[in-house]
Amino acid sequence: MLDAQSLIDAFGAYAVAGVALILFLETSTIFGSFLPGDSLIFVLGITLAQSSSNMEIIIAVPLLITSATLGSQVGYLIGEKVGPRLFTKRKKNWFFNEDTITRSQAVIDRYGPSALIVARFIPVLRALVPMLVGILKMGRKKFFRYNLIGAILWAGVLLLIAWGLGNIQVVKDHIEQWVLGFVIVSSLPFPIEILRNYLKARKANKNS
């Protein structure tokens, strides 16, 4: 995994544009899944908090949301156009096979469009789910709506949270620990959603 702080330092004055590019690459194909999107958002937010002007955060929020949205839209289109041939080709492997589509359909049927939002907070899944949804032919307008909501919560809200924490001394003094904690907390929506649906199903079984 690449180090987020090192990347931010390397981007220098172009940190906002660099992070936006990485979010696009991470969300558009599964080949960008090794990129540290979560920690980059957090470190960028802390870095921008040190600026004497608020203009950078004003630019960064819509830019990162747009980049994350466009990345997933590309993933969706790849799934829609190329996915069926990729997953049903004659030579199959552990991932590219029809069973993957079947299992993905079951997950989406169970959790509905909210699966798109939850997947934003899980590495690999934020690139994989849009592609699989494209294969399963979810309507483009419906996908865009939930894609945008997920991008706002992931790239926008989390960036603002990190920016708000950026001037707190204990955060600046222990940035590595806070980055780790941020990544863990940002992943919580997935297990929470699973638990919520489990409890709902359990309650429904008791009442039936």
Tell me what portion of residues adopts beta-strand conformation.
under 5%
Class based on secondary structure composition and strand pairing: mainly alpha
What is the straight-line distance between the termini?
Answer: 48 Å
Based on CA atoms alone, the radius of gyration comes out at: 18 Å
How many helices in DSSP terms? 12
Helix content class: over 70%
Q: What is the average of the pLDDT values?
A: 80
Which blocks of ≥5 consecutive residues have pLDDT under 50?
Answer: none
Order of helices and strands: HHHHHHHHHHHH
| Overall spatial form | globular
Largest sheet: none
How many β strands by DSSP? 0
Characterization of this structure:
With 208 residues, this protein is mainly α. Helices cover 77% and strands 0% of the residues.
Keywords for this structure?
208 residues, mainly alpha, 12 helices
